[in-house]
Amino acid sequence: MADQMTAIERFAAYSKGEPIDRLPCVPIVGNTAARVIGVKVSEFRGNGRLIAEAQVAAYKRFGYDIIRIFTDLYTQAEAMGAKVYYPADETAYLDIPAVREVGQIGSLQPADPYKDGNLPQHLEAMRIAVEQVGKEVPVTGAVTGPFTNASFLIGTENLVRLVGKNPPAVHKLCEVSLETALRYAKAIIDAGCSPSLTDAMSSTTLISPRQFREFSLPYLKKLIDYIHSCGKAVTLHICGKTAKIWELMCEAGADCLSIDNAASLLEAKHKVGGRVRLMGNVKPSEIMLQGTPADVRKAVIECVKEAYDNPKGFIVASGCSLPTETPFANIDAMLDAVREIGYPVNINNL
Question: Which positions fall inside the Uroporphyrinogen decarboxylase (URO-D) domain (predicted)?
């Protein structure tokens, strides 16, 4: 089934309550884009043009509603001195934090997104994508939240320990991470894109709601307030279990909550659906990677049943970034299911 609207037309009409052809749909394609153009994931390092080529090709191949320029969570921390390991053909991971001891925190400096690490290459990718397809689909740049970036600067285990034993040190790490995030967000907006926030370590799987309020919320709010001041809306994704902090995520100012598959869309709709748009939450590994197209279709229908009538709107999406080897047939199945369902949704037909 063919789309009747571009993504930008669809979002604009949806936000105004005007007719649309289908719900917006975003299988969160990260490094799966490498498979679309037949390159290795490691080739993205230092190559903004290749990142753009892959992400634009993936968008054209599948027809989803948001391009997200993203390779891994560590780009900001790497630009601040952390060492990142790049496997030959998989997603990068943190190798060595920027600092080892509390006494070294003062040496950390905010990154310059136009000079440091791979940030300039990601900005180049954003500019190219906007130039090529920005009139038909929104292009976003992934920004790692301050608390999560702080964990990459000193190591997750160290940060969790410091949360209890040395709160001032945690705040220093978050403050310098916030400054990098603010600079990067400005550069993303100047490139014609919208920042999209991911704050994986702020999950209640790792910290308590009280700790989220103290160490994550203030910095997220400052970052989101800045993005709003530039006229951009904000989607916030926090991995894992988040039900106990949905209200706080709304308090931070997020316009859309990307709900991980570990949480319930139905519960989120009842708790905060009157305040924010919801996005999610087909399982990336169990369904999108390991399932069949029929499994994907069934999962999409279940998500739509739970959240199609969310007061602030709903985007069908994967619960997190797709694994690199996600079958193309399953991504097609997600879009096909949303097109088949159409809009307005007739719940009796699902």
Answer: 7-340
